[in-house]
Amino acid sequence: MLSLHNINAFYGPIQALFDVSLEVRQGEIVCLLGGNASGKSTTMKTILGLVKPRGGQVVLDGEDITSLATPQRVRRGLASVPEARRIFPRMTVRENLLMGAYTRRDKAIGDDLARVLDLFPRLKERLGQSGGTLSGGEQQMLALGRALMSRPRLICMDEPSMGLAPKLVQQSFELIQQVNAQGVTIFVVEQNAQVALSIAHRGYVLQNGAMALSGPAQELLHNPDIRRVYLGEVAA
Ligand SMILES: Nc1ncnc2c1ncn2[C@@H]1O[C@H](COP(=O)(O)OP(=O)(O)OP(=O)(O)O)[C@@H](O)[C@H]1O
Ligand SMILES: [Mg+2]
Known about the structure:
Blueprint: E1 2-11, E2 14-24, E3 29-34, H1 40-48, E4 55-60, E5 63-64, H2 70-75, E6 78-81, H3 93-99, H4 109-119, H5 121-124, H6 136-148, E7 154-158, H7 166-181, E8 185-190, H8 193-199, E9 202-207, E10 210-216, H9 217-221, H10 224-229
Parallel strand pairs: 3-8, 3-9, 6-7, 7-8
Antiparallel strand pairs: 1-2, 1-4, 4-5, 9-10
């Protein structure tokens, strides 16, 4: 469905991604793991068109979309839940959700709003409340709900576990699984390898801007290097 081919990305003179390739197949949950500053967010921004690579291709449904702007990619089915969720704190829950439909001109937006509210009943009770007053877990639901409002085929999420208490992290990943079960493909960037691999089908690991490892999630979960580096196990 979506693939990156040999992406090289820079911020000014500094290279952030080195020859990064990955693939996300229809229906999958794919996670991208890596430590701080390894290039995870840059990879996600490259998929969304927020970072323009200096080399390599972004391919969606067999079409090279490397030169397309972000709204054009959204119209083709991509949506994002950015780092730190980035909801609009002064706008109400309803307004936040409707912002997710900004690229659409069709009349089914009301139906989709109803569907998102069915999925997240807590948001339904808080439609008129300003986004900034929601709890962390509720803001996560709002950010995911907003992404769903564009009727995406692929949602890219940047560290959904960040800043959430362990119980909420679990809940948040259950929601991701629920959305995936409804047919939406998920690409999730995470530092929390344990929880991300527990729901993902496959995973990739970035190290210093280059792809270090990839494989089925269960395989990565049992990989000794991953266990040592990301799951905090000390080598015997
Ligand atoms: N806007 C920017 N301008 C300059 N350098 C940047 C910019 N954004 C990221 N970088 C650099 O690119 C590298 C990769 O950053 P990136 O945000 O992709 O890492 P990350 O894996 O998402 O890290 P984290 O886990 O801390 O979110 C870092 O060295 C970072 O300093
Ligand atoms: Mg990041």
